[in-house]
């Protein structure tokens, strides 16, 4: 037994038994590896989350067993070689996946992204030393307790994100760790320790070497954290390395009675106020990006931003394409940005028209966007907009519950009914149906077959 493992056992034995409750499947994985003569621990995020009183989403296992030795311990079970070159296999045990990774040392990193090679080791301490943050560099197994060589548990209690070893070295190995640090700060509502924060700032230029897809995943998680606004506020210049379009927002005074914050602070307050879903948080982050380019001041000293939704959508499109967002997310975000300044009125005909134009799902999202937008405004403007939005939402629910007509599918007459009036087949049939639908939406005609046929007869007779 090497000196490293002796140190681990001494420190683990002295550690207070943490409240980590390993589910039966993960416990079985540990037990079968140990019966095969190998060390095995749960490690990383599942340990961190357990110590925080959170339910882990998955249970990762680290082991001294080589991949082929791991496979031998689970002969007859389904094994997927997900990352064999890096020592990782995925075991499917009674339908539940478990990632099992051999202790390893990372070689030199290529392009600040991934190690050129990995070397397997029998030392848990060497494996933990390669990990990025102390709060993820802890391991645990029943009967031994917590293995915490870098003060991760203390950092949890201090609510600190701190690199293992020298932060600039960690970020130089894989620059995505800079965003991971911000993501953990946002999701856990933690702070970066001073050295880690300084290194993240000084190394931020390395983010350009990271694949857009990896950046997108971390950005979504960061935005959906409960402390997203604070983290974006504190680390604006790191975000600006990826989204330089935000730079003009900071300090840009809006010069209107509706706003008391500059465009950047308004943006952050709307991000904080909207539901924590990636498309909605992205919408709020990008919704006012076009304001600086559209700003004009009138002769009374009041600012105006005519056309800024369209300009914001134009800038947002470039960002979404650059980060390779999927088409559905991009379409949602761009439509909501274009609509975000549309005045919602709690009037049945107005709501039915919006339902016809954008549908109930998008209108529901727009209500959430406008409620969040109000949260970043001056008191009077916030109260007035919030009242209109809330009343619109109540009326929308009533309209949907009643089943009001707002699409051709809901109309009480069909194309066949129009043809029965002697209208020849062709575009005129569709035009008349659309006119009837507009009349129903506006409340000018009842959605009954008799009333609509009578109206259609009058339309035909007027031609």
Task: Report on the architecture of this protein.
It is globular, with a radius of gyration of 29 Å. Residues 1-17 have low confidence and may be disordered. Helix 13 (263-273) packs across helix 18 (348-375) and helix 14 (278-286) packs across helix 17 (327-339). Strand 3 (78-83) and strand 4 form a beta hairpin. The chain is built from 22 helices and 15 strands. It has 463 residues and is an alpha+beta fold.
Number of helices: 22
Radius of gyration: 29 Å
Tally of strands: 15
Shape: globular
Helix-and-strand structural type? alpha+beta
Average predicted local confidence, pLDDT: 92
- Low-confidence sequence ranges: 1-17
Give the SSE layout.
Elements: H1 3-14, H2 24-35, E1 40-43, H3 45-51, E2 61-63, H4 67-73, E3 78-83, E4 88-93, E5 96-102, E6 104-106, E7 109-110, E8 114-115, E9 118-120, H5 124-129, E10 138-141, E11 145-148, H6 152-158, E12 160-161, H7 167-173, H8 176-188, E13 191-192, H9 194-202, H10 212-223, H11 228-234, H12 236-242, H13 263-273, H14 278-286, H15 291-294, E14 296-297, E15 303-304, H16 308-322, H17 327-339, H18 348-375, H19 379-402, H20 415-419, H21 427-441, H22 449-462
Parallel strand pairs: 2-5, 12-13
Antiparallel strand pairs: 1-2, 1-10, 3-4, 4-5, 6-9, 7-8, 10-11, 14-15
Summarize it.
This protein is an alpha+beta fold. The chain is 53% helix and 11% strand.
């Amino acid at each position: 037994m090497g000196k490293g493992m002796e140190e681990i056992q001494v420190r683990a034995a002295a550690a207070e038994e943490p409240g980590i409750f390993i589910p039966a499947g993960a416990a079985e994985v540990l037990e079968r590896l140990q019966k095969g003569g190998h060390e095995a621990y749960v490690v990383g995020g599942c340990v961190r989350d357990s110590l925080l009183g959170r339910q882990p989403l998955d249970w990762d296992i680290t082991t001294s067993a080589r991949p082929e030795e791991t496979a031998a311990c689970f002969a007859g079970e389904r094994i997927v070689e997900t990352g064999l070159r890096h020592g990782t296999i995925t075991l499917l045990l009674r339908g539940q996946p478990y990632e099992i990774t051999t202790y390893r040392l990372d070689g030199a990193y290529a392009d600040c992204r991934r190690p050129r090679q990995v070397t397997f080791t029998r030392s848990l301490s060497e494996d933990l030393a390669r990990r990025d943050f102390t709060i993820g560099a802890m391991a645990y197994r029943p009967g031994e307790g917590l293995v915490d060589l870098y003060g991760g548990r203390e950092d949890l209690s201090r609510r600190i994100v701190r690199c293992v070893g020298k932060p600039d070295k960690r970020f130089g190995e894989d620059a995505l760790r800079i965003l991971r640090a911000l993501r953990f700060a946002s999701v856990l509502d933690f702070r970066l320790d001073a050295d880690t924060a300084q290194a993240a700032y000084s190394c931020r230029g390395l983010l350009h070497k990271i694949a857009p897809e990896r950046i997108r995943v971390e950005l979504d998680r960061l935005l959906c954290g409960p402390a997203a606004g604070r983290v974006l506020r504190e680390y604006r210049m790191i975000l600006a390395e990826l989204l330089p379009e935000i730079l003009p927002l900071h300090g840009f005074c809006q010069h209107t009675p509706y706003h008391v914050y500059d465009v950047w602070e308004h943006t952050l307050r709307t991000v904080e106020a909207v539901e924590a879903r990636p498309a909605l948080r992205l919408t709020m982050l990008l919704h006012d990006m076009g304001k600086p380019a559209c700003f004009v001041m009138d002769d009374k000293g009041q600012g105006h931003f005519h056309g800024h939704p369209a300009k914001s959508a134009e800038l947002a499109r470039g960002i979404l394409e650059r980060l390779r967002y999927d088409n559905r997310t991009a379409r949602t975000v761009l439509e909501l940005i274009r609509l975000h300044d549309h005045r919602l009125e709690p009037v049945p005909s107005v709501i039915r028209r919006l339902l016809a134009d954008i549908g109930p799902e998008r209108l529901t999202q727009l209500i959430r966007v406008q409620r969040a937008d109000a949260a970043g405004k001056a008191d009077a403007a916030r109260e007035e907009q919030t009242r209109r939005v809330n009343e619109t939402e109540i009326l929308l629910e009533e309209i949907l519950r009643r089943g009001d007509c707002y699409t051709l599918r809901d109309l009480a007459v069909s194309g066949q009914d129009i043809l029965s009036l002697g209208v020849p087949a062709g575009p005129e049939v569709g035009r008349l149906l659309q006119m009837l639908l507009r009349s129903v939406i506006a409340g000018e005609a009842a959605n009954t077959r008799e009333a609509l046929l009578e109206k259609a007869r009058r339309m035909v007779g007027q031609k």
